[in-house]
Specification:
Layout lengths: L3 E6 L27 E2 L8 E7 L2 H8 L7 E8 L4 H9 L2 E4 L2 E4 L4 E4 L21 E8 L6 H8 L4 E9 L2 E2 L8 E3 L2 H9 L3
Parallel strand pairs: 3-9
Antiparallel strand pairs: 1-3, 1-11, 2-3, 4-8, 4-9, 5-6, 7-8, 9-10
GO biological process, one term: pseudouridine synthesis
Organism: Raineya orbicola
GO molecular function: catalytic activity, acting on RNA; pseudouridine synthase activity; RNA binding
């Protein structure tokens, strides 16, 4: 039987089901069926949308670089980010991936005029009175390791908080941190691939 779950992964939870060091894992959120696995990565320090399934075709299509799927991140960065930095993020820039220089594909980015309505992080990011922060939305079609963090650092605005908000048309809208939702195959295929 095929299963599809969307979760709002909390900060500090590993993107796996077991951990030798005793850190919180996905198993702490829900009693998932044994053959269900996360599609793609979301670091322990990152929050947000994660899809878990045992449908190998979804896994293959989302992780295969030849199918370009848009992933949107809401990112809190250190400093008052500039339009110049946004343009650099959008046009592509050089970051280091596993010791080699890599030029990112064009992306879409914008600055939030007011911070997005997101749940408080536990623990909260370190507040520094004399250093402002800003929020941006960044949509990419790649998934290199730590890519978003490396991109914002490369334009001079280090990432403080990273939330994956959307994969294609699947979003975190109306979800709470740690929430798990079961979806039908039809819903998943419509939102990810535009067909039921």
């Amino acid at each position: 039987m095929l299963h599809y779950f969307v979760i709002y992964k909390p900060y500090g939870v590993l993107n796996q089901f077991t951990d030798d060091l005793g850190r919180p894992t996905l198993a702490s959120l829900y009693d998932f069926p044994k053959d269900v696995y996360p599609v793609g990565r979301l670091d322990i320090d990152s929050e947000g949308l994660l899809l878990l399934t045992n449908d190998k075709s979804v896994n293959h299509r989302l992780l295969n670089p030849k199918f370009k799927h848009t992933k949107t991140y809401w990112v809190q960065v250190e400093g008052q980010i500039t339009q110049e930095a946004i343009q650099k993020l959008e046009s592509g820039l050089d970051i280091r991936i596993e010791g080699k220089m890599y030029h990112t594909l064009p992306a879409k980015a914008f600055i939030f005029e007011t911070p997005p309505q997101v749940p408080e992080r536990n623990p909260p990011i370190r507040f520094r009175k004399n250093i402002p922060t800003s929020w941006i939305s960044l949509s990419i079609v790649e998934g290199k390791k730590h890519q978003v963090r490396k991109m914002t650092a490369a334009v001079g605005f280090p990432t403080l908080r990273l939330i994956r908000y959307q994969i294609q048309h699947l979003t975190l809208e109306n979800m709470q941190v740690g929430e798990v939702r079961k979806l039908s195959q039809k819903e998943v295929y419509q939102k990810l691939f535009g067909k039921g």
